[in-house]
Every structure is written in C-alpha cells, then in structure tokens.
Amino acid sequence: MRALSRRAALALGLGTAAALGGVDRARATPSEADEAIAKFTGGKQLGPGRISIDLPEIAENGTAVPLAVTVESPMTTADRITDVLVVADGNPNPRVAAFRFTPMSGRAEVATRIRLNATENVIVVARTGDGRFLTARKEVKVTIGGCGG
Amino acid sequence: MAEKPRIKVPKEAKKGEVVEIKTLLAHPMESGLRKNEAGALVPRKIINRFTCEFNGTLAFACALEPAIAANPYFQFTVRVEESGTFRFTWIDDDGTAITADESITVS
Amino acid sequence: MRSAALVAMLAAAVAAGLGVYVSPVSAQSAAPVPLAIDGDASARPWHRYHEWPQRDSARFNTLATLTSPPAPTAPRKLARPIAGDPALGAKLAADRARGGSCLACHVMGPAGGADLPGNVGPDLSEIGNAKLDDETLFNFIYDARVYNPDTLMPPWGTHGIFSDEEIGHLVAFLKTLKAPARFKSELDDPAKRPPPVEKRDNLDSMLNPAMWAVDEKAPALWTEPGPKGAACAGCHRDAAQAFKTWAATMPRWEPRLGKVLGIEEFVTRHAQATTGHAWPIESAENVGLAVYLRFLANGSTIAVDQESAPAKAAYERGEALAHHKVGQLNFACVDCHGAGRGAGKWIRGQWLGQMRGALDHYPTWRTSLQATWDVRKRFQWCQVAVWANELPPDAKEYADLELYLAAQSNGLKLNVPGIRH
C-alpha cells in the first residue's frame, strides 16, 4: 500500500501532536519564562493594561491554538506600539514569537496559531514607542484526550 | 516544489484605510522535539522570520519560534496611503527565502 | 420531464425527513459504472501505520473475530483481605498509559489533581462511604460483568490490564474517597464543563488545510491522464455539475463486489478501471479526491439507501457491528457514541459525540494530528485506541459499519471537509 510518503507526511506536519504529547523535556520553569521576558524588556518594569488576549479557555489540543493579541493604541508616531512578545510558560522553550509593528501598521493587532505543551499561561509583553512595557496573561487549559490519542 | 503561499489582501482601498491581511504558508515547522519512527529526534527546521513590506518599506515583521504552529498563519493590518505592492517573505532555518507579491490600488 | 419532477418531489420528501425511499439517481448513464473488481483496495497483509502504537491485540476481539477470553460466570473469592497501597492506587487511577485510566470515565476526588476527569461512569469521590466490601470492589475492577453483563467497565483483570496486586492498590485508594471532588475551576468539572460547539469556518483554506485538496490538488488530479491515457475529466468534464448530489447517496451496495462501497473504495476501483491510476485507500490522492467529491455535493441532503434488500441487510450487519465489543479495553462503538451510554459525556477532556451528525463532515482535518482523515482511518484509530487490532480500511465490516453510520445522518446536509480535534 502506498502510505503517505515521508515527505508528504512531513509536509502535513504529521507527528507534531506526538511531539507535544511525547515530549519528555520538562516544562520551562517560571524563571525561564521570566528570562525570556527580561531579555525583551532589558529588565525594565512591566505595567498593566491595554492588551487584550483572545485565546480559548479550553483548547481541544495543543497543536494549533488560535491566538489573537490586540494592544490599544492610536498607532501614531507619537503614541504607538513597536514590539510585542508572546511567551508560553509551560513550553519547553517559552518564547513563542516576537512581532514588530511600524508606523504603517494601522493597528497593533495580530492573530496566529500557536503550540501549547500543556495547560499553561500565555504571557504577552508590549513595548511602547517611548520605551515602556505593558503586560497581560491568560491561562489556557489544554485538553487531555480520553483514550491516549 | 514548495507550495505557493496563500494570501488575502483587498484589491482596492481608500487612502488612509487600514486593510486586513491574512497569510498562510504550508510548512511543517519541525520543532526539533519530535521523534521519528526509529526514535531519533527530527532536527529543527522552521520558518524563523516573516516580513511584510509595502513599496519597499517594512510594515510588519515576526520572529517565529518552534511554538508557532505548522502552516504558519498571520493576520495583521497595514494602513495604506498609496497604491503599490506588498512583498511577503518567509525565511527558513536553512536560509531559503520564499516571497510573494500582491498589489493594491489605493484611491 | 414528469419523471424528473417526481424524483425532485421524492428528494424533497426525503429532505423533509419523511423517510420516503428514493432510488439514488445515477450521476451518469444507466449502465454499470466501470469498476476494477479484482484485488483489494488497500495493501494485504495490512500493516499498521508506523506512527500509531504498535501493540498487537490479536488475543482480543476485532470487528471480524471473536478471540477475547469469555467473561467469568461468578465473582472471584478473595483468599485474604486486600492490603493495597492507596498512594499507588491513586497513581494507577491517573495513569493514561493504562488504557485511559480510571479518570477517563470517573470523577475520583483528588485523583490526578482533579484535572479534567471524565463522566461516562459514576462519580466515585465518595465511594469510600458506600460500605462496599473489599471483595465487591475487587471484582468490580477485575471484571464488572459478573455484576452487570451490560457494563461499560473494561474487564481490567480478565483482560490482563491490571494485576491482582494493582487492583488491590486501586481498591485501597477507592476506600479513601469520602468527600466530593474539589475542582479548581468549572472547566475541570465534567458536570459543568460546556460541551464544545463547532463554530469554525471549515471551508476556509486559511484555517482548514483539508481544503487545499479542493483548491488545487484534486482539480489537478482530475485532469491528469493515467496509464490508460485517460483522465477523470475525459468523462466528467463538469465535475461540479455531475457530482452535485452523488456523495450524499454514498455508501452504496455494489452487487459485483458483494459489499458496500464507500467513496474512497469507489475512487480506487473506478479510477483503476477507467484511467489506470493506482489510488489505493489512504493514499494522499485518494483522500484528496474523497474530500473533493463530497465538497462538490456540499449542502445536499444525505440520503443513504437503507431500504433495498441488500442495503437493509448491510444496515443490520452494521448495527450489529456497532454493538460488538472489541479490544483489550472491550468497547463497542455504541459504548462511547450511543445515546444513554457515552454520547454526550466526557472521557477526560474529550467530548463524545452521538452517531447522528458524525458522517456529515468526513473526511475531516484533524488538528491534533495535522492530517486529513477519511472515515475508514477514523474507524481504524478507534480500534487501536481501545487496544484492538484494526482491519484494512476497505474491510467489508467497515463498509457495513459506514453504511449504518451514514444512515444515522440521513436528512442532514453534507459539509465537507470538516475540522475537528
């Protein structure tokens, strides 16, 4: 029988769930997540507000969880967001992505799909044009399947 | 032969309008944590950078890690003041770049 | 003109759910459709996909065999009282490697951190107060069929999943459960957890990679000549028109093969006979075309024949198969998906759907595996998941089961490809 060729299987990303389910690397420690954030902020203080994180309360699995981030900002030269960091504190590597927004962005918002290892916090840090940092976080429960698959 | 990226950009917009853009590239985003059937780790091979330029100027960029899901998808906005061309670029760990262009008429 | 109007009327009656039998109108002429009759539509001997658990469960029932050990006729008598370790029992109850573990179906107080337990079985959080003796608790786990022949409990002892010593630990743990479970949030409580509602736009190519077959791959295959020099497009130039409702009438009985034919097997045999293309079931081409042919009929009302004599017989066989216990975990389809049994309940964090509405969206993109699955692969996985050996995807048992299952969705509209966990 012609099973999916290896190349086709890889192209379809087969096995990513196995990667997540079968990962025996330990979760990142909270300090590893903090380190990733400190690298982004240069150790500066984080303030609250203006960030909305759209994530499911329960994700059906951790393979492709839809994430949308919006940072309220007029996005003018004087008042804008320049960068957004996304961190997942339970992933083997807590850094998920860093986004660069520009004066051409219009809005500081982005939607994507991310991998989550297990139930964990997704932490968003935004950098403003004048070098301040804002943060928000949301917990996502990653469903444990019923029969091991 | 790599798959063509999938891109949704409006064909037209008004000057100053903020348009919504959606992009998708078929790519396994091999995290480096997956084991093959022989039990060996499959090496990491991901798209690590995505950029959107408009008329040669950077509008939006993303530095991706393995935690971006397979077939990386981004939805974002750009304010257009003039007609022109969007250039989207995806850069693989192995150095190859995939690009796609879409034009927009702004009145 | 009149007969077309009559067919349209009858089709409308079916759509209205009156159950009036409509002979499926052939998409083409009245002559039998060319099919390669010889051989199988997938590899023999069948070898399991290498990414799947490779456990061999030949000692236990499959849908085609009866090999499981018989249920005991009486409870076992314990020679001495149980001296189990409740801490070890708590660990075993939460161990997903042991057939889902107890938490798959039971809330059990603090076990597993009360993290997304299931509710197919009763809440056992206060079973320590129930004054059941050790022997009863032991036998319930060892083989609950001695108390209830219709039980959903896997026969953990008879089927060799837990040893007597391990069952002892589980009994010791059960006896410590004397207070209602305390959940960190409502999401963890299966009684309060909201059932998932599928709201995604499954036909959006930006969201559902299974649509790439519809956008590009299948149309390309449609015009690709095979070894005989012909392509699908040679006879079916306007695919969208020709297959506007066909998929909604499948699967169907095929007298030349003496079995029910699903779309996937039809594609293999028909493509072979006409174009020479070799597209066995589960090949990427076959899955892509199976998605495409159903997509072309999206919106049409599912109307699977279950009235003609061979279809009726197949339906009844399929129904029996849906009740046939398989595997080391000893489950039948209806145990998870039948009303009054598992349907509408949770196994760990996974919702169990009912049978009606299962087949209107297959093949489906599976987000957990980043792959498009047709229903035969889904059947195969369900077997492996309950520690049973699967059959080849074109097995006649799966064909009968598919007809039975598809008929449960009669009256619903096709909406393919789906997108699911």
Describe the structure.
The complex is a heterotrimer of chains A (149), B (107) and C (421). By secondary structure, chain A is an alpha+beta fold. Chain A has one domain: SoxY domain (Immunoglobulin-like, Sandwich). Chain A has helices at residues 6-11, 16-21, 30-41, and strands at 46-48, 51-54, 58-59, 65-71, 81-88, 95-101, 108-114, 120-128, 133-142. Chain B has a single domain (6-106), classed as Immunoglobulins (Immunoglobulin-like, Sandwich), CATH 2.60.40. Chain B has no helices and 8 strands. Chain B starts with 5 loop residues before the first strand and ends with a strand. With 421 residues, chain C is mainly alpha-helical. Helices cover 31% and strands 5% of the residues of chain C. Chain C has helices spanning 2-15, 86-93, 134-143, 164-174, 211-222, 232-235, 239-242, 263-274, 284-295, 309-322, 333-337, 375-385, 396-408, and strands spanning 252-254, 259-261, 346-347, 350-351, 364-366, 371-373, 418-420. A 3-stranded mixed β-sheet of chain C has the order 6-5-7. A two-stranded antiparallel sheet of chain C has the order 1-2. Chain C has a two-stranded antiparallel sheet with strand order 3-4. In chain C, strand 3 (346-347) and strand 4 form a beta hairpin. In chain C, 47% of the residues are buried. At the A-B interface, helix 2, strand 6 and strand 7 of A face strand 5 and strand 6 of B.
Short description:
With 107 residues, chain B is mainly beta. Helices cover 0% and strands 52% of the residues of chain B.
* CATH second-level architecture of chain A: Sandwich
Uncertain segments of chain C:
13-28
| Low-confidence spans of chain A | 1-24
Percent in helix of chain A: 10-25%
Main sheet summary of chain C: 3 strands, mixed
Quaternary state, please?
Answer: heterotrimer
User: What is the C-level CATH assignment of chain A?
Assistant: Mainly Beta
CATH homologous superfamily title of chain A: SoxY domain
Mean pLDDT of chain A: 84
Can you write the helix and strand succession of chain A as a string? HHHEEEEEEEEE
Order of helices and strands of chain C: HHHHHHHEEHHHHEEEEHHE
- Provide the helix percentage of chain C: 25-40%
Topology:
The complex is a heterotrimer of chains A (149), B (107) and C (421).
Chain A lengths: L5 H6 L4 H6 L8 H12 L4 E3 L2 E4 L3 E2 L5 E7 L9 E8 L6 E7 L6 E7 L5 E9 L4 E10 L7
Parallel strand pairs in A: 1-9, 3-9
Antiparallel strand pairs in A: 2-4, 4-7, 5-6, 5-8, 8-9
Chain B lengths: L5 E3 L3 E2 L3 E8 L22 E8 L2 E8 L8 E8 L3 E9 L4 E10 L1
Parallel strand pairs in B: 2-8
Antiparallel strand pairs in B: 1-3, 3-6, 4-5, 4-7, 7-8
Chain C lengths: L1 H14 L70 H8 L40 H10 L20 H11 L36 H12 L9 H4 L3 H4 L9 E3 L4 E3 L1 H12 L9 H12 L13 H14 L10 H5 L8 E2 L2 E2 L12 E3 L4 E3 L1 H11 L10 H13 L9 E3 L1
Parallel strand pairs in C: 5-7
Antiparallel strand pairs in C: 1-2, 3-4, 5-6
